[in-house]
DNA sequence: CATTTATGATTGTATAATACAACTATAACC
DNA sequence: GGTTATAGTTGTATTATACAATCATAAATG
């Protein structure tokens, strides 16, 4: 790998993360943290915070608070595990599913706006490489 | 642009930002915020917080605090603007320059480790596309 | 030239996202 | 049945950020 490429990636990642931290701070609906948690629940529902924390690679305490916040807003419901007195399941609610879709669509739209004049090939590569990079981070 | 690409980018960006927020939280030297500020000072030194805030697209108050922290650690020095009683310059110190290099090298190394078996072409594209995306974000 | 307005910077306050440590309640193990 | 492990929550701390208020000085205005 050329050193030039490496240096570009290093700097641009630093910039990107700062930019996105700021940019996504200004939403009134779902905050970024809740978004991924809600997505995860929408997919692999019927799990507790421990499992979610593992899947999302976050501390259990973090997920516990985020899940409590979603519960508060009626986006999920917390159900006692009948077979284990310590454990709970979370289920996304119908309302949660709707809100998730709304938020996701808004995100898609705003990203689409950023990419308006990108060649298809660039958009395709960017998605693929982001995914590949995340994979590498996850396995690290 | 295919909807598939868009959806991939949307999700992978959300994951990336979470991952990097966490991953870079555990360094003892320079925190991420200081890093970009210090880089900026290393390049375009002799400017005050207002200019820095504009360049970094951050609120002035944020930069003011970050700069104060760098000053505290002797990584920069704060100099009164002789021509304007309200204003200051910041200059990176020799020590600051050294620390910046050390930190940057460490970052390069850890990213390089992630990309070990990436084809050159992928690394090159990833850097180029990140930069392009940041550009789009900046101009938004 | 005196008053008002604009500007550079700092500080107070608030919020979001996170981790680690301490704790509670229940289950599993021997 | 006592000890250890596990699911989850809560207390506390840190980092990064923004917005609003404030301070001091400079610039503009009449």
Automatic annotation (TrEMBL), chains A, B:
The keyword DNA-binding applies. The keyword DNA-binding applies. SMART domains: HTH_MARR. Pfam families: MarR (PF01047). It comes from the Bacteria. Keywords: DNA-binding. Residues 1-135 form the HTH marR-type domain. InterPro entries: HTH_MarR-typ, MarR/SlyA-like, WH-like_DNA-bd_sf, WH_DNA-bd_sf. This is MarR family transcriptional regulator. It comes from Exiguobacterium antarcticum.
